[in-house]
Amino acid sequence: MIEQITDDIYRLLVRFKGAMGEVNSYLIKGDNGYTVIDTGIHAPETKTLWERVLSTYKIEKLVLTHTHEDHIGLARWFQEIYNIPVYVSRRGYEEMRKGSDAKARKNRMKRLIKKHGAPPIPIKIKDQSHIFKFEPDGFFDDNDAITLGNRLYQTVWTPGHAPDHYCFYQPESEIMIIGDHVLNYLSPVIGLWMGEEYNPLEDYLEALTALKDYPVRLALPGHGDMIENLDERIIDIYRRHEKRLEQLLELMTEDEMTAFKLTTKAYGPMKNAAFASQFMATLTRLIYLEEQSKVKVQTTKGKNYYGLPATDLEAIRS
């Protein structure tokens, strides 16, 4: 159930139905008990697993890499049922406040997807706002020193996948708890999950490149296998985004299209739950390209259509 990773770090694979189906939670051993990193979603099966763990292991505190539902899911439960202190970033607390208002979040998301040409959400999304409705016991900020187990880690703000995403770096051991910022074999989805429109891909690529300044022997991600060569994986992900950006520019030589239409062109027709992530990835790439003046946007009947600037089209067709 629990796998030892280093002399003081253990991994608990928390499985559940839906989403990515699992999360890596980490238990870091200290003199006062274990520090837990992330919990998995709020669900009966995750509670059952953690009940078994909590009956055996003394937990000192819970620290969150970011406040997406599959990482913060049981934080309130940890606090209320087991009196375990919960620590979150101040940026994360702002995201919690947004997530706690389910109606406002749903309305923002409806406006966003309509603006970008997507049909109404075909399935009823379960209201998870209750998981955000609690007060953390403590906060951390950028470049703070935080004790996880018996060691001091540096908090490294790495926005993109989430605006409040943090990695935790231990310089002596060269271990980095990397959350969802970098995953092995998968590219983290860069989306607008609170329904607010901004340019997270620019943030992500900058934060991704900045990690190369840290000597990392082993990176511990929020999903999937551990990463032994972080720099190599960073380069792979960066190149993947470059290829997808190039693909979108090529598709727009055909015609102006909404983000939804471009998603179907790039990934195929909307068939399964993965399409929501594909749509978000396409949309954030288009926003990135727009801010770089590589695409133009025209609004017609309340919908945004993306295309190449006229000068670029003329150059391609001449």
TrEMBL record:
SMART domains: Lactamase_B (SM00849). Transmembrane segments: none annotated. Residues 22-223 form the Metallo-beta-lactamase domain. InterPro entries: Metallo-B-lactamas (IPR001279), RibonucZ/Hydroxyglut_hydro (IPR036866), Sec-metab_biosynth-thioest (IPR050662). It comes from the Bacteria. Pfam families: Lactamase_B. This is MBL fold metallo-hydrolase. It comes from Oceanobacillus locisalsi.
